[in-house]
Structures are given as C-alpha cells and as structure tokens.
Design a protein that fits this description.
Largest sheet: 7 strands, mixed
Structural class: mainly beta
Number of helices: 0
Number of strands: 11
Helix content: under 10%
Shape: globular
C-alpha cells in the first residue's frame, strides 16, 4: 500500500505564491509517475503537472510558466511551486502516484484559495 499526504495549501492573494508538497510512504517502486491534479466543485478533476521518477515533466498549458513540478526521490516527496496565482487556480489539489497497471493512488487533497 501507498499513502500520499499533501500539504502547503492555503489562502493567497492574486499574484502570490505557494508551494505544495506531497509525501509518499509505503511500498513505492523505483519507477513511477507522480502528478498534481486539481478539482473545483462541479467540475472534473484535471491534470496540472506530472513528473516521472527520472525527472521528465509535463505541465499543462494553463499553468505553464507559472507552476513548476519537482521531486526528491530520496525523500519520496513531490513539490508544486506555484507563482503568479490567479483566482482560477482556486481548487483542491490532489497528489497522484502511478507505479504499475492498476496501482494508482491518491492523496486526500489540499485546498488552495486565491482571493483578495
């Protein structure tokens, strides 16, 4: 089993910054893909960014240039550095880990609110 715990969410003003963390524990394979997703009420959960265990990244266009994804494999921790936050970035942000077919895990989420 794998446990994922997100942290770092909160209230921030437009234009501000936050850094989210996702700590993974349990039976983690050396080869995996971790990602950040976000969801607002009434909408589907959407991908924000993902990173492989080798460091390859994919960031969606809506946040490209403002968000950076990274990970520390030694700590089994993934990060999402968010700059120039907009009200549209308000959502619950979820951590995801995939390490084999059928082995996908989710955290419980952390709320990010961008508001003045």
């Amino acid at each position: 089993q794998v446990q994922l715990v997100e942290s770092g969410g909160g209230l921030v003003q437009p234009g501000g910054s936050l850094r989210l963390s996702c700590a993974a524990s349990g039976s983690i394979f050396s080869i995996n893909v971790m990602g950040w997703y976000r969801q607002v009420p009434g909408k589907q959960r959407e991908l924000v960014a993902m990173i492989t265990s080798s460091g390859s990244t994919n960031i969606v266009d809506s946040v490209k240039g403002r968000f950076t994804i990274s990970r520390d494999n030694a700590k089994n921790t993934m990060y999402l550095q968010m700059h120039s936050l907009k009200p549209d970035d308000t959502a619950v942000y979820y951590c995801n880990l995939m390490q084999s077919v059928g082995m996908e895990y989710w955290g419980k989420g952390t709320l990010v609110t961008v508001s003045s």
